[in-house]
């Protein structure tokens, strides 16, 4: 959902002076050193794997291959989460963490391009996600894994676990996206009031011009609505910008062409997926799950509000269910507060790998 913020940052940094490029290289080197896995039983690998008939990038990291596997399904659309690896380094002591650049995203898009990516749909991403999970079971010799779906990734993440519950210990939704079909008027009113309070009349006029029906929005309209929604919370917006800027610019191993591919992939994915995303309603996909179901939402998230996530959560039927508000966090709560997020995973989620429900 925040691909446009990432794009603005990425485009801006490409023109930075040579001195700052050198500083970037130094920071990347230090981050890479902190990420080095030296344990004899650890794993650190990146490769392209044939998924859905095309080669897609998968990164696997962890201090002990005996740990349970945590597959991260990123959001966007098209916004790879692999840039956040330094922020979640502590997770790798307890999980084997898997980053997957979906078709239309990151290094996968850099390899495939627009033509090679083909048409992207939520159905295709669902099938790809199931295939990735099956690959990981074979590669890492696991019967089941955990699935952590972030933001837009949670729209089809819930379909992955609904179709193949046998593959997973539990579903974990971070910044759970339940769609724009419900609570629209209430959310819009709140955004308008906040914009007026902070004096952003330009944003008020922009949202009035765009209108309330997302099925009529262009990609530019979608971008504008998300941007002004975030700006209606100035403090949260500044924190998110800093998180994304640092993550993109200082990600170890990322070259300028990786950043360009990241931006281009997000644009391509939004074009492809906006018609479906604008009509998505999580309730229509079903609320009954055969595996434990967890939602983690930033308590200050103005983009995907805790209120709407709670409404959906209350309707969910699952063997175990739990919803947690991450304090002092908005969108990208898991990466803004990785320690708080991990602590709850270790207490309530990871034990399911030993004692499946």
Characteristics:
8-stranded mixed beta sheet, 357 residues, alpha/beta
What share of residues are in beta strands? 15-25%
Unreliable parts: none
What is the approximate shape?
Answer: globular
**Average pLDDT rating:** 92
Distance between the termini: 32 Å
Alpha-beta classification: alpha/beta
Give the strand order of the largest sheet, numbering strands 1, 2, ... along the chain: 1-2-4-3-5-6-7-8
Residues in helix, %: 40-55%
Output the helix-strand order. Answer: HHEEEEHHEHEHHHHHHEHEHH
Largest sheet: 8 strands, mixed
Q: Count the beta strands.
A: 8
Q: Please compute the radius of gyration using only Cα atoms.
A: 19 Å
Count helical runs: 14
Walkthrough of the structure:
- By secondary structure, the chain is an alpha/beta fold.
- It has helices at 3-13, 18-35, 106-117, 122-140, 153-163, 184-197, 201-210, 219-231, 234-250, 256-277, 282-285, 306-315, 333-336, 338-349, and strands at 43-51, 54-62, 69-73, 96-101, 145-150, 168-174, 293-298, 321-326.
- It contains 14 helices and eight strands.
- α5 (153-163) links the parallel β5 and β6 (168-174).
- α1 (3-13) runs antiparallel to α10 (256-277) and α7 (201-210) runs antiparallel to α8 (219-231).
- The relative contact order is 0.16.
Secondary structure topology:
Elements lengths: L2 H11 L4 H18 L7 E9 L2 E9 L6 E5 L22 E6 L4 H12 L4 H19 L4 E6 L2 H11 L4 E7 L9 H14 L3 H10 L8 H13 L2 H17 L5 H22 L4 H4 L7 E6 L7 H10 L5 E6 L6 H4 L1 H12 L8
Parallel strand pairs: 3-4, 3-5, 5-6, 6-7, 7-8
Antiparallel strand pairs: 1-2, 2-4
Helix pairs in contact: 1-9, 1-10, 3-10, 4-5, 7-8
